[in-house]
Design brief:
The complex is a heterodimer of chains A (293) and B (279). Chain A is α/β, with parallel strands linked by helices. In chain A, 33% of the residues lie in helices and 23% in strands. In chain A, helix 2 crosses helix 3 and helix 2 runs parallel beside helix 4. Chain A starts with a strand and ends in a 16-residue tail after the last strand. The C terminus of chain A is likely disordered. Chain B has one domain: MetI-like (MetI-like fold, Orthogonal Bundle). Chain B is built from twelve helices and no strands. Chain B is mainly alpha-helical and 279 residues long. In chain B, helix 5 packs antiparallel against helix 6, helix 8 packs antiparallel against helix 10 and helix 10 runs antiparallel to helix 12. The chains are: A alpha/beta (293), B mainly alpha (279).
């Protein structure tokens, strides 16, 4: 596998609990991600999704195990891995341009300010914020703020993007538009992306692989679902695809029951060989896979 | 609506001022010759005894004296007779020196305390003990060690403006949102650049609030300090005019102290507005 970019190798996160004991959020977690792949991790609150992302970002350290990115073990945050925060985390005293340029000048310290701004402008245009360069975050709507966050993350041309429920604070309409933007950008730039989500449809629309995590504490990666939908998919007719409902039902079933029972009913679970599932829709889908446009 | 509110408020302010001045005038008005007395004796006794005039000057007396001061604020006729402008300049210079010195110490040390939990805990007992000490209590020690009354006054200003700035800086720096620091971490921003581009702007409103509290305290303390050290300054002027029994000048000095204090406060308020960011 020459295109393997990220591999989580047996990571664990434990916190001291009252009374000298320790609480294990998750342990012995193995996961790999390939270059240019969009991975979405879905699980209930408290299963440690955000912790996994923070460890991947280098903002948090695993209690055990290691994270390898591009054949090197990571030791902390890096410009190779850009984070899009759930709360957008823009610097309120800087303008849109200032926020993006801050990231650009952090990566290329010797660039002239003109070059920095030109580079930043490219990414402001990419997320569709042309004309709002001089606005401050307080003057922007939630969706626009998150666009700035995306522009900031992309502007440093990272090896991978980490998104922590980037759209959860947005209204449904804005969320949809922004998902389209992210999908377009990821497809055109071939960006490797790791995203946390609560939203099953968001995962189905955006991700190539959906990682299902069981409930914490002691959470494990139950299985990896490969998205059988064609690369060329549109949000509006996604639900018409014959494999859409088998895939969605599979994930919902997991979240409703199997996320609770998985560990108990799978005694031969091997964290290093997580089952990869590609829903075929045997019981429902009869029609052949339509090659949409 | 807003402008009309401002207008109405200023009308009320002017009316209140008029009422106060009127009351003041009436209260200090003479009640006419009190007792018949020999004109030669009356001359010796002065208006207070002969015309029942109050020893407290009225607004007209104070106004006339203010006009006199305004015409020539910077005269210098020896040690005990300097224009009110010169006295004010001395006080403002002392406050400025002591205050800027305190800024230069409080902000870096505040940063250190805010960024390092170890230093925060280690320095906390010292700050807690030093903070409640009246700045004037330092005066004898300052006079003894520095041996210069002028510099001692500056030291007292320094020590009294230090604590609010130090505590607010430390508080502001320690309270910088984790997400902004995480942004800096993911962008691999170095410590120095992080301090200037993330922590300083994020903590600036809190720091300036501390600076505003400090300038207020410094201006309160300078009057008392100058009464002690003597020689020059608005505080000395007040005490000197008290010794001269010139209540008019004392009242004028009180007004001037208030006005300068307001200007200093407004200056810092303006700085505060500059560094405040809407969220």
């Amino acid at each position: 596998m020459s295109d393997k970019l990220v591999s989580l190798e047996g990571i664990a996160k434990r916190y001291p609990a009252p009374g000298g004991a320790t609480t294990t959020i998750f342990e012995n977690l193995w996961l790999t991600m390939n270059r240019g792949e969009f991975t979405c991790i879905i699980g209930h609150s408290g299963c440690g999704k955000t912790t996994v992302l923070n460890i991947l970002a280098g903002l948090d350290n695993p209690s055990e195990g290691a994270v390898i990115v591009d054949n090197r073990e990571i030791t902390g945050p890096s410009l190779d891995r850009a984070v899009i925060f759930q709360s957008h985390a823009l610097l309120p005293w800087r303008t849109v341009m200032g926020n993006v340029a801050y990231a650009v000048s952090s990566k290329w310290r010797k660039w002239s300010s003109a070059r920095t701004r030109e580079h930043a402008q490219k990414f402001i245009d990419l997320v569709g914020l042309t004309g709002s360069e001089h606005k401050r975050p307080s003057e922007l709507s939630g969706g626009m703020k998150q666009r700035v966050g995306i522009a900031r993350a992309l502007s440093i041309e990272p090896k991978m993007m980490l998104m922590d429920e980037p759209f959860s604070a947005l209204d449904a309409l804005t969320r949809g538009t922004l998902q389209d933007e992210v999908r377009r950008i990821c497809l055109t730039t071939g960006q490797t992306t790791f995203m946390i989500s609560h939203d099953v449809d968001e995962g189905i629309y955006l991700a190539d692989k959906i990682v299902l995590m069981t409930n914490g504490p002691g959470a494990v990666v139950a299985e990896i679902v490969e998205n059988p939908l064609p690369k060329e998919r549109a949000r509006i007719d996604l639900h018409r695809h014959p494999l859409y409902y088998p895939l969605r039902n599979h994930i919902i079933d997991f979240l409703v029951t199997r996320s609770r029972t998985f560990v108990g009913v799978t005694p031969d679970y091997d964290p290093r060989k997580v089952v990869v599932i590609r829903p075929r829709g045997e019981p429902v889908a009869v029609a052949p896979i339509a090659n949409a446009s | 609506m807003l402008s009309s509110l401002t207008l109405r408020a200023s009308l009320v302010s002017v009316a209140l001022l008029g009422a106060i001045l009127g009351l003041w005038h009436v209260a200090t008005m003479g009640s006419g010759p009190a007792v018949k007395m020999d004109p030669e004796y009356a001359k010796l006794m002065g208006a207070t005894a002969t015309q029942g005039k109050s020893a407290m000057p009225g607004p007209a007396d104070v106004g006339a004296k203010i006009w006199q001061h305004l015409k020539d604020p910077f005269y210098d006729r020896g040690t005990n007779d300097k224009g009110i402008g010169i006295q004010l300049a001395y006080s403002i210079a002392r406050v400025a020196f002591g205050y800027l010195l305190a800024v230069a110490v409080a902000i870096p040390v505040g940063f250190l305390i805010g960024m390092s939990p170890l230093m925060s805990r280690a320095l906390d007992p010292f700050i807690q003990v030093m903070k409640p000490i009246s700045p004037l209590a330092w005066m004898p020690l300052a006079l003894y060690t520095i041996k210069d009354s002028g510099i001692s006054a500056i030291f007292v200003i320094f020590i009294c403006s230090l604590w609010p700035m130090l505590i607010n800086t430390a508080f502001g720096v320690a309270g910088v949102r984790k997400e902004w620091l995480n942004v800096a971490r993911t962008l691999e921003v170095g410590t120095l650049r992080r301090a200037f581009t993330i922590i300083l702007p994020a903590a600036a409103p809190t720091i300036v609030t501390g600076m505003r509290i400090s300038i207020g305290i410094a201006w309160l303390v300078i009057v008392a300090a100058e009464m002690l050290v003597g020689g020059t300054g608005i505080g000395y002027f007040v005490w000197n005019e008290w010794n001269n029994l010139s209540i008019t000048n004392v009242i004028i000095a009180i007004l001037v102290i208030g006005l300068v204090g307001m200007v200093l406060d407004q200056l810092l308020a303006r700085v505060g507005r500059l560094v405040t960011f809407p969220e």
